[in-house]
Amino acid sequence: MKSLSPHSTIEIIIPNWNGKELLAECLHSLSRQTCREFCITVVDNGSEDDSLPFVRSEFPQVKVISFSENRGFSVAVNEGIRQSESDWIMLLNNDIEVEEQCVEMMIHAIETYKEYDSFSIRMMSYHERMVFDGAGDAVLRGGVGYRVGTLEKDTGQYDTDRDVFGACAGAALYSSRFFSVVGLFDEDFFAYLEDLDINMRAVRAGLKCKYLAAAKVYHIGSATSGSKINPFTIRLSTKNNINVLVKNYPVSLLFRFFPVIVIYQLMWFLFVCKKGQLNAYFKGLREAVKQVKLMQQKRELINSSHAISIKAFGGELTLSEREAVKSIMNRRKALGKGNFLLETYNKIFL
To answer: pTM for this one?
Structure first.
């Protein structure tokens, strides 16, 4: 890979933890880019699998930041962002293959959509190349994010650039201004839903995000944690779901969205029971309770510096959930499954 200046238009920041094999393919895909206006930083979270010697040996032009222990996604990317000197920052998971024209398409978007401070990348399944992993992030008002298009077959339905609620931090492009306005990722989240939190703060700040149909990556998914459903993911997802609600919802929205919050929490609890993960669930709840006061303090800071009204923010959340529910229904319909409950929810609450 050609050595690139730290003052390149885009700095690509890749967090890594024991992902040597994944990282190798990710970096090789970046070496094949048609545009060279980028540099790369790998932030290693105390890997014990020779990730660091590998990068320093095979990719000496890649900047390396290393921690002695796993300090989580947010801490890792934040350190990369702090040390970046580029005008634009791309966050990229290590389990992603980047299509050859992706950086070129991002540069084109920066020049075309000058009023935008973040971009969502077209994410496809690594193993099923015609199946979406995500086409922009939406939100469910129960306090979680949803990658629009997840598990949908590509029939051209997401071939057009469009405004979205936010970007999945696994493959997203942000201006340096974005972080100066919104702040960095919340390090109290460690991992999971930290991108939903920052997306909510960006919407409150009046910033816009655009989904880029032509900038494409292929995502394995859950490669670091080992699986999508395990005690680690259940615990952090439960804790951070509560943190998102307490931190980002003004009290009036908590009351307004109380019915949908209860519905989501009930469905999540039933899902956890089905997967036999009650211990992890209750551990996550206990951790969330311990952080309630801290999240309330953070909410006050957000409320004191917001750019759009609470009513407008609530409208953005509802509009985004409509898109998420539509995507879920489309996926279920394609699989021959019914949508009675979702249709009923749609009619009553959306």
So the answer is: 0.93
